Amino acid sequence: EEGSPILTMPTPLLIIAALCSFGNAKDWTTNSSLRTMAEQRKRVPMKMYEVNLDLPPSQRWDHVAKDFKQYVPAATEYLYSFIPKWALPLFEEVAKDVEPYFGDEYGGEMRGLSQALGMKLGDIVVMNLVYQVESLGLNCSNWNNTGPTQKDDPGCMAVDRDQKWCYCRENAEHIRSIDGWLRVGDTPSFKSAFFGTSQGPKGLCTSIVAKDLQGNIFHGRNLDWNLPEAVLNLAIDVNFTKSTGDGNQRSSFLGSTLVGFVGVLHGMRTGRYSVSLDARGKGGRPIPNIMEALLKHGHTPSQHIRSTLSSGDHSFERAVTDLATGPLINEAYFIVGGVGGEEGAVIARNRAGAQDIWRLNASTFYRVETNYDHWNPVPVSDDRRTPAVKGMEAIGREGVGVEGLLEVLQQWPVYNHHTDYTGVFAAWNGTYQSWTWRLAA
Questions:
Q1: Is 163 exposed, middle or buried (0-12, 13-18, 19+ CB in 10 A)?
Q2: Is residue 224 within 8 Å of residue 204, measured between CB atoms?
Q3: Are 60 and 109 in contact (CB under 8 A)?
Q4: Among 171, 342, 390, 429, which one is most buried in terms of CB atoms within 10 A?
Q5: Could you report the per-residue pLDDT of 49-86, keeping only the tens digit for each?
Q6: Is 308 helix (H, G, I), strand (E, B) or coil?
Q7: CB crowding 379-409: b at 16 or more within 10 Å, else e
Q8: CB-CB contact of 69 with 62 (8 Å)
């Protein structure tokens, strides 16, 4: 299913969009140009591949990789745009002996993907840690992924009362001094006060879990990573299969990922539960993230999701327990939807375990999670929570379903100019629908 086609956007305009979204005198959520840009894109169904988990890890992705080798140069360029030179030896060290850091299964898959895609193993390691380390070049003004928060912003004060890192006065004042929005043709340096050495925002998400009038659970999500088109070409859905013992293959679980990335960003065990990942605390601090990976061998959140999905045909409650425990490289939110009743939960994860589990209950038919703790207000400069809540109240419990969740997920600014992916899942009936948002050819 597709939306309206859009005009092809020149590279300078994409740069401007990224700059504008970081916020200046105007709130990005009220900027009509950004909204028009988002609404002119189209929704494109993702292709499903089968990955046989009975094969040796190094061979599982060979048939997938051959369809995507053409995108490797652009993907590699994107990855290296986030990593300062001083950090590269860390990833090269991991690549020398990848299995002890990621385990035999994931490490073996990384080796196989390296060979099948023609990428250096160190580049595959970077790809699998890019979310954890891409903020290496960012500064305090970027903490909420969309721009400098306002002075004394309630959401900012809730997590950083002294405003030492959440609000960056120098950068915010510099941005406010600009007269209006940047014009087409402006080519600001990415090494300015706007970005440090980053080339754009990352990691925003919205996840919703809700129950319909019959008590069936539906789960929807947007992923707003602002990926370049060439990297978005790597996005696929995967049916992970195992042998039934009689020579046939059966679906073990479904997941969505990027080719070269061994974790899954969201997934589902049909008849059991679905799970999605939202960023928390901007993905944590990059240096502690790296140390957690190197010294404690923690999972990335996407690897933790995949391990949970693959660990057995267990229940919603067991999935919540597994996702709430175990070491993580960085903090995250796991949003879990079961099959019925009150089987819905938002897990706020620290590295060591769950800080909070926020469940569906008899008094509410939905939970909405963006990128902020539900017990704190959201930053004024990035309020996607309120529009999502209003959208859910508008459709009501009688409107919960695939089309109802899509209606909410496609409302501005829940859906925005950085949204790469939208999906709706229902474990109770096997629904797993995925789309990427693309520029018209």
A1: middle
A2: yes
A3: yes
A4: 171
A5: 999 999 999 999 999 999 999 998 888 888 777 677 77
A6: helix
A7: bbbbbbbebbbebbeebebebbbeebbbbbb
A8: no
